[in-house]
Amino acid sequence: AQTVTQSQPEMSVQEAETVTLSCTYDTSESNYYLFWYKQPPSRQMILVIRQEAYKQQNATENRFSVNFQKAAKSFSLKISDSQLGDTAMYFCAFGNAGNMLTFGGGTRLMVKP
Amino acid sequence: DTAVSQTPKYLVTQMGNDKSIKCEQNLGHDTMYWYKQDSKKFLKIMFSYNNKELIINETVPNRFSPKSPDKAHLNLHINSLELGDSAVYFCASSQFGQPQHFGDGTRLSIL
After folding, report:
1. φ and ψ at B22, to 5 degrees?
2. Measured between CB atoms, which of A39, A99, A102 is closest to B94?
């Protein structure tokens, strides 16, 4: 079974600054995917970024990028130029070969004006 | 043109009742899922359904039963509701190896 750990229950950042959310996971599988999902107060689950484990290159999506360290089983999310609309819960998720997701406990991010 | 739609969005009911939550996806995905998000925001997979193969998370009580009339629908039926069933339930769908698309969730409140 996989486990996903997000060690920061809450974080805050000033608007326009950069923030990094941490995520570590544990698995014995070799073929998997990693995701960051955002859940704003509206409770929608919105995909932020996705990383295939077999790819060494870190995924980027506009202001969002990841630092994927496979050997360390670490998958952190960096948000650059933080905006007020980035305020949300952020969930790290592990997707196995069967595409079932295991989520971390979430990090509540507050962007302050 | 909502991709994954769940109904109802809110469900308030008495303990002991039986209820269903419906989910439909128009993305042509092969696999559908149900997740439960508890009051502490923790999300946990309940079921995965692909080509009539059901994968059940072993921690899910057998009062919960998914029903799939076709590939585009995966409904969740819950018997004998208990206080601990209060949560937000999310339906999702995907193709293999692709990100899951989530519905907007159904908040179930048990009185």
Report:
1. -100, 145
2. A99
- C-alpha distances in Å from residue B61, one per residue of A19, A26, A88, B50, B57: 39, 26, 31, 20, 9
Tokens, residue A82: 């933080």
Contact A89 B44 (CB under 8 A): no
Q: Is B39 on the interface with A (CB under 8 A)?
A: no
Task: Tell me how far apart the alpha carbons of residues B2 and B4 are, in angstroms, rounded to a whole number.
Answer: 6
Q: Chain B neighbours among A 28-47 (CB < 8 Å)? A: 33, 35, 37, 39, 42-45, 47
Predicted confidence (pLDDT) per residue in A76-92, tens digit: 999 999 999 999 999 99
User: DSSP characters for B52-110?
Assistant: TEEEE-TTS-TTEEEEEEETTEEEEEE-S--GGG-EEEEEEEE-TTSPPEE---EEEEE
CB atoms within 10 A of CB B20: 13
> Are the C-beta atoms of residues A88 and A107 closer than 8 Å to each other?
no
What's residue B1's pLDDT?
A: 62
Question: B31 in contact with A at a CB cutoff of 8 Å?
Answer: yes
Report, as ranges of residue numbers, the positions in chain B whose pLDDT lies below 50: none
**pLDDT tens-digit profile of B46-78?**
999 987 788 878 789 999 999 998 889 999 999
By CA distance, what is A51's nearest residue in B? B99
